[in-house]
Structure formats: structure tokens, C-alpha cells
Amino acid sequence: EDQVTQSPEALRLQEGESSSLNCSYTVSGLRGLFWYRQDPGKGPEFLFTLYSAGEEKEKERLKATLTKKESFLHITAPKPEDSATYLCAVQAVLGGGADGLTFGKGTHLIIQP
Amino acid sequence: DAGITQSPRHKVTETGTPVTLRCHQTENHRYMYWYRQDPGHGLRLIHYSYGVKDTDKGEVSDGYSVSRSKTEDFLLTLESATSSQTSVYFCAISERSGRYNEQFFGPGTRLTVL
Fold first, then answer.
1. What strand order describes the sheet that includes B73-78?
2. Residue A10 touches chain B, beta carbons under 8 Å
């Protein structure tokens, strides 16, 4: 059974204070690892997909990295608008060729001005 | 933003009543998914569809059924709602499977079962 564990559960940072969020996973065979951002009362917003250990992707102040056991979401010089819950998920093969995502519980990030 | 709408956005109902949630997409994507999100849990897959009239069960399918009679619509039905089905329900779509399968989510439906 695929498992995804995110840490910390919550993180409070000052504006400009860089940090990293962790996503550790256990899967029989990784097909893809996804990062999403979720704002209160809204659906998850797609950020990145990573497929291979060593792969990195960047978007503005965010950079996602992947190893064989975990992924990190690095946030550089964050701003208050980066406050959100960040979700990590691994991709699993389903019937009919569909793919399901197994999600972690998320990290609630607060950036204080 | 991916063209996904969900209706209703909020619903309050009573135990034992049937409830149908609708997901509508304008992207013509093949794959559609229903997830539920509860405090203390990650998003969990309820049912999914890999084509018109092709559906299957996910991780937490008990008490739910789905139908997809056309590409753009995916319906989730709670045959007899229970308080344990109080949750936020999200629909997701993806164009392809396998590599580069990004799933895009709708705005969600908040369901309360009294």
C-alpha cells in the first residue's frame, strides 16, 4: 500500500525566511510525485510533477526536488502570499489505464509579514 | 485555470436522503476522479472514470456510486447519506495517464449530513 507522510504538519515563517517542506513516501514503484498548493475553501492547484530521483523543478520562489525516498519543497525568501497548505501525492496505476493519487495530509504554511 | 465546475458548492442534507453531486468539465479530458477531503486525512479517491460509461472504485467507495453518460459530466451519488459522509468533495480531471498525467481539481462541494 502506498503511503505518503508530510512534515512538518504546520510551519510559521517570517517573510524572507527560507525553509523546506518534506514529503517521504513508500510505494511499490514510483510513477510520479506531485506537489499541489491549496488555499482555504479552494481546490488543490497543481505545482509540480517529479518522476526520477535527482530531478528538480522550479517556479518562482518554489523548488521541488526528489530522491528515492522523499521529496522536498524548498521555499526561498517567501512572501505572505505563499501562505497555504502544500500537498504531496504519489501516482498509482488504476484500472482502465487511469491514475489515482495517494495524498499526504499536507503542511500548513504561514508566512508572517 | 482548467474548466471544471462543481455543483452545488454547498449542501446541507439529512441522514438517509439521496444526494447527487455534479462535476462538469469543458476540457474534453478522458479521465475524471472524485476525491473527498477530511480533517486528519489526505485527499482520498472515491471513484474514477476512464471514459464514457467506464468507471471503477477507488479507496473509499462504500456508500457511493457514480455515472458518466457523456465526456463532460461525472456524477457522484450518495444513495442514502450518513453523517460519516460529511466532507468536502473534489472532482479532478486529467487528459492522459502515465507520465505527464497532471490532475486538475475543481473548486469543491462542501456537504453536511445532519
1. B4-7, B19-25, B73-78, B64-70
2. no
